[in-house]
Amino acid sequence: MKTVLRIVAGLALLLLVVVVGGYLWASRATASTLARTIDTHAVDFPIPWPDVGPGGELGDSAAASVDPRQAALERGAHLVRARYPCADCHGENLGGGVMMDAMPVAQAFGPNLTLGEGGVTRDYGPSDWDRAVRHGVGTDGRPLAMPAVEFRSMSDQELADIVTYIRSLPPVDNTVMPFRTGPIGKMLVATGAFGFSADALPHFDDHAAMPPEAGPTVEFGAHLAATCAGCHHTHYAGGSFPGEPGWPPSSNLTPAGAIGGWSLEEFRRVMREGVRPDGTEVAVPMTYILGLGQAMSDMELEAIYLFLQSLPATETPD
Asked: Partner of 51 at 20 to 30 A CA spacing, among 36, 155, 216, 261?
């Protein structure tokens, strides 16, 4: 009996050593991952964006019938409320929100973007905005929890319009807790199972100055649908993705998925009401996107639909 107890005690001690050793290794690896610096290019663009002529050329602000800043504000408001899910992470007032609160995995809170106390963008210039939004890299060069892979295709004009709009918002005094990883999260980061956008993006390629011409076209739809890549991947065939425990795999958006048999009106209903043609409802986190769908125009939703229908039929990866 004593021999059995000694064996059990020895195995328990060995397990404890393995667990503690693994945790210490994961903690050091995670700290190293979060502390490293990533080089990016430095860009510059005007904020607010100048007025634009019908052919895309810069116009004459003095002769414009619409104040360029007011036009940028209106475009920026639409971008934030209809095309880019800023509020999902940064809160409705953009003064800070919850990205993930799932310990022992991780806690990630969208920082305060306003000009109030605790606002992280108060001293941002164009290049700082570019690094954070389109590269997932902070002003100190360290990787952010920002899902920049969804915003890589954002043009200079769109980013300038969004900045103009954010700077016009009422200041919110709120200091947001920094990104934290729990024991499981440390292991995921250490093993590479939880990645950062900064590691998946090019950092020295040029960005488009302006978005494609708006219209019910595949090209414009591809631009709008780029924000879907964070969950549905760049192949749009869906599958598993980093998220809170319990979130289901993302759906296949190519014609190989159920969407291949949807009509335009059925697609619009899914995007605005969250109800599929078979009567089932979409699940979290797709429910967070319904506000964007409701704010989009019929033309914008048609463009996305045309783009998704144009994709090659791709089976969801295992």
From this structure: 216
